[in-house]
Amino acid sequence: MHSFEIINVNSQKWNEIVRSSFTHDFHHTAFYNTLENNNKAVMLYLEESNDFIALPLIIREIEGTEWFDATSVYGYCGPISNKKFTDLNLSIIKQFVDETKTYFHNNNIIAAFSRLHPLIDQHTLFNNFGIIEELNKTVSIDLTISPEAQRKQYRKSNKSELNQLRRKGFIIEEAKSQAEVDAFIAIYTETMDKVGAGAEYYFSNSYFHLFLKNSDFESKLLLAKFEGKIVAGAIFTISNKIMQYHLAGTSEEFMKDTPMKLILDEARLLGNTLNLQALHLGGGVGGQDSDSLFRFKSGFSKNFCQFSVWKQINDQEKYDFLVSQKSLDNSNNNYFPLYRG
């Protein structure tokens, strides 16, 4: 026998499931799924013979219709389980897929999308359910090897530049006050303006303050300072032995000095101190392996991971109708669902 339920993001059970999973990240927590999502997050949860599969999703209305679609939070999410997905009985996977399809049908959810986690093997669940599209590579520093072995993977120029930054007097400190957080927010916003970032990369001030104070996972804001002035900063999360490089920015005045390199080096050392397994730096902008951001990150590690997304059309007729109503002349044809592109 199995049981299938839809768990609301405000339910205490959400985080109990996350904590009992074989592996997870902060993207799976109730807090992160609530943040700026107006309580539209649900967790599809199936339990069978003491095993479970859970998939967090954000349910969105499709404007002008009585239909909905589903997506995942910003970042790396996807399903979780109490075991490796490759160790699960095929029957529970089939039950989860069947129940999820029924849920989508009964609730007029015509399409579903989820970004998958590069450090968690989630593909098995979707072998016969939708499609998995491999996008770009991401960069991860293996913290299970010695600090010396980690540093050997650094690009040669990085090593000399880190030494120069320290000699010049750049230091790294953790933010200790709201004023320091506010200074970082200003720098982050300035950085997004400079690179012409999309709307999805901008966040309210309350987002940052709530993020850094939340109780579902640990987060740290590391700041680079020069002569007492904050010149760069980055938020790192710590969850289930995984450290994530989440949001970062550098003051335009100090861009040429690249103090972010020193922040990442200190974050790596912090991860070693905390006995973490990985510092995941993420990938390039817009799924590219050749842009400057990816080249910057790949200067810290040769350990590349595959970033993939899951796409599922639940009602092809309604999906095609919505696409037909949209002018696609200037759209990104790789976007999913296409009618939102």
From TrEMBL:
Annotated keywords: Acyltransferase, Cell shape, Cell wall biogenesis/degradation, Peptidoglycan synthesis, Transferase
Residue ranges occupied by any BioF2-like acetyltransferase domain in the UniProt entry: 153-284
Protein name: GNAT family N-acetyltransferase
The keyword Cytoplasm appears for this protein: no
Xref: PROSITE patterns: FEMABX
Gene Ontology terms for molecular function: aminoacyltransferase activity
Family: Belongs to the FemABX family.
Gene Ontology biological process: cell wall organization; peptidoglycan biosynthetic process; regulation of cell shape
UniProt-listed Pfam families: Acetyltransf_6
Organism: Aequorivita antarctica
PANTHER family linked to this entry: LIPID II:GLYCINE GLYCYLTRANSFERASE (PTHR36174:SF1)
